[in-house]
Structure formats: structure tokens, C-alpha cells
Amino acid sequence: MPAKMYYESDADMSLIEDKGIGIIGYGSQGHAHALNLKDSGLNVSVGLYEGSSSWSKAEEEGLKVGTVAEVAEDSDIVMVLIPDHLQSQVYRESILPYLLPGKTLMFAHGFNIHYDAIIPPQNVDVSMVAPKAPGHRMREVYTKESGVPGLLAVHQDASGNAHGVGLAYARGVGCTRAGVLDTTFKEETETDLFGEQAVLCGGVAALVKAAFETLVDAGYQPESAYFECMHELKLIVDLFYQGGMEYMRYSVSDTAEYGDYTRGPVIIDDSVKEKMRDVLDQIQDGTFAKEWITENDEGRPTFNRLRDENAGHPIEKVGKELRSMMTFLSDAD
After folding, report:
1. Alpha-carbon distance 73 to 98, whole Å?
2. Quick check: 331 pLDDT over 80?
3. Residue 332 confidence (pLDDT)
4. Catalytic site residue 136?
5. Count of other CB atoms within 10 angstroms of residue 224
6. Spatial separation of the C-alpha atoms in residues 327 and 332, rounded to whole Å
């Protein structure tokens, strides 16, 4: 049975048109949600900490701004869009005291709800609208009368209208223009973490570095290795994005296609899938979540060490030099 998708006509905007919507945070997602909702004619305010550098930026965009506590108190719908590791403390200190019966608590990622870092009172709705794009892209396509797909989940339906309110919110930020898919907090959280770790960030970065090192160790120029293993990756990903694997294979040479079929499975074999299953197990049983929460509680010693180590990798030095010569990169911004 195909997944259920929702579009513009499925969303009842009367459910939120008279509600106060508080956006907590004004980063990549926060600014896009707030501005898209404002442009949709909804009553939006932004909650920030005192002294935030985003305060004047949000005001310049015509948004009402206050402290997190002020916005949480004044809003009927509170959307939390600050980083995962900050959410539980901010929630306890500045949101929970004002989370009165009948209000809606929303998220764009299920991490803190799914792993019980935040446990809301039973008399409020708890839902999620997760646009499937970075905030700047979400905002860009909205201003062009389009939208990015989104996910919708309901964790707690105290009012009986949690799904409808979530769908109206999704329309307000533009997601119903492209399609909104029903999911759960569990599915969104676990698949999102797995995708980041196994493919989108961890898997791709590790594969690129390993390939670069293999060529350099074999005596090839680092610049040639960079072009082949990192620079051209965008060209291939764009083909995936546009038409899937079939379109990518149609677009490359027959030599490349044959190498894809015969050598790709040599690199990504059953042992890699077994390791992926191990990564997924640690996401599902909460091992990764506990590790990440502890890492932040202890001041991020491992995170900071790994960030420094990876920033110093030779591929970064070579890449920085080569990208400085590519004027088209800055022209595309």
C-alpha cells in the first residue's frame, strides 16, 4: 500500500489562523519556519536567549522577538528549533512552565521526544513537522511559490486535532506544496540518524577520505585525488537527485557504468551492510543517544578532538587551495 501523502487541499488553515505560533530559535530551520509562516499570514513570534546575535536579524525581517519564556507564554503553538543537545534544558527552564493545557508543542526532529529527554505533560498536543531540506533551501523555494517535502508525526493527541493542526502548520511553511508524508517520531528519528551516520555525513565522508588516501599512498598527486574523489561527487549526486541511479548511469560513460556494477559491490560488500546493521542497532536501542547526551554533558571532549583531527586532514588543505581558484563557487552563492 503506497504511503499517504497530503497536499494543499488537505490542510485546514482555520485550525491555526487565529493561533499564536512561537518559533524557538532562529538558525537554519528557525528563520525559514518563521518567515514562511509570516508570509502565509500567520501570527508568528521568535523566542531567543537574551543577547542572541539573531535578535536584531529577526526584527529586521519584521518578526516579533522575545525571550524563549515570553514567547512560550504568549504562544498557542510552540515549535522548538534549537539544536538537539540544548533542547531539554531550554524546555525545562523556559517552555514547560508555560505549557498550559490545550497548547501544542512541536518539533522538526524527534530526538528528544523519542529518547525521553523531554517528557511533555499529558494535556498538550505533541507533534512534528520535519521539512526534508536545509532551512535556506526551504526558504528559497517558498519564495518561488514552491515548497520542500515534509514529514508529519503525532506523538500525543490531547485535543483530538493534533494531526490537523500539524498539517495546517506544514502548509504554513510550504511543505504541502510538495507533499507531506505521515510518519512517527520513532521512524523519523531512527531513519534520520541512520541516514546521517551511514550515508549522508559519516559514510560519504569516510569513503571520500579513504579513496583520497588510497590514491595519494599509491603516489598520485593529491590534487588529482581530490578532483576524482571529492570534487566530482557533486556531479554524481546531482544526477541521483534529478533522476535516481538509472539516470546517473545513463549520464556517465559505459566504462563508468560497468565499473559501477562490478567494483562498487567489492567496496560496499556484505561486511559493510553488517556494520550498518550494528550502527542501526545502536540507534534503535538508544546507545548512540545516551553517548551523545553524555558527550555534551561532559563538555564535548571527543567531539572537539575529532573535529580538530578531521579539519587537519590533507584533503581539507588541498581542497581549500583548489576551491580558492574556482571563482564559479562564489558566483553561485
Report:
1. 5
2. no
3. 53
4. no
5. 12
6. 9
The type of residue at 202 is: G
pLDDT > 70: percent of the chain? 98
Per-residue pLDDT at 4: 83
- Three cell numbers, residue 144: 518561488
- Position 3 scores a pLDDT of 76
pTM of the model: 0.91
As a whole number of angstroms, the distance between CA 322 and CA 233 comes to 15
C-alpha cell at 54: 539573531
Active-site choice (109, 114, 155, 163): 109
Would you say 124 and 105 are in contact if contact means Cβ atoms under 8 Å apart? yes
- Do 117 and 147 touch, CB atoms closer than 8 A? no
The 3-state secondary structure of 21-61 reads EEEECCCHHHHHHHHHHHHCCCEEEEEECCCCCHHHHHHHC
Contact by Cβ (8 Å): 135, 145: no
Pairing assessment for the beta strands 5-6 and 77-80 based on DSSP bridges: unpaired
Helical (H) or strand (E) element with 64: strand 64-67
Q: Which residue is associated with the grid cell 507533499?
A: 179
Q: What is the reported pLDDT for 112?
A: 97
Beta-strand (E) ranges in 81-220? 104-107, 125-131, 150-156, 180-182
Give residue-wise pLDDT tens across range 28-52. 999 999 999 999 999 999 999 999 9
Q: Are 33 and 171 in contact (CB under 8 A)?
A: no
* Identity of residue 320: K
